[in-house]
């Protein structure tokens, strides 16, 4: 069974495509990534960043 850390949270399609294009396919891979680095991705907005941060925090993880 997949862990929630093995998939990306439910965010907008452009934000999901931006993460996939940058090589991120799971929530686990985003732990410790600088928030500013993700914010620079085309299609990544404040709402998606907030959802990602909240999802990481559920597992005692965080963006840096």
């Amino acid at each position: 069974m997949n862990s929630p850390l093995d998939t990306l949270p439910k965010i907008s399609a452009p934000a999901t495509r931006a993460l996939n294009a940058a090589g991120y396919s799971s929530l686990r891979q985003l732990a410790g990534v600088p928030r500013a680095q993700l914010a620079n991705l085309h299609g990544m907005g404040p709402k998606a960043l907030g959802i990602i941060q909240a999802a990481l925090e559920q597992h005692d993880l965080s963006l840096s």
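The helical segments are 13-21, 27-30, 35-39, 46-57. The two ends are 28 Å apart (CA to CA).
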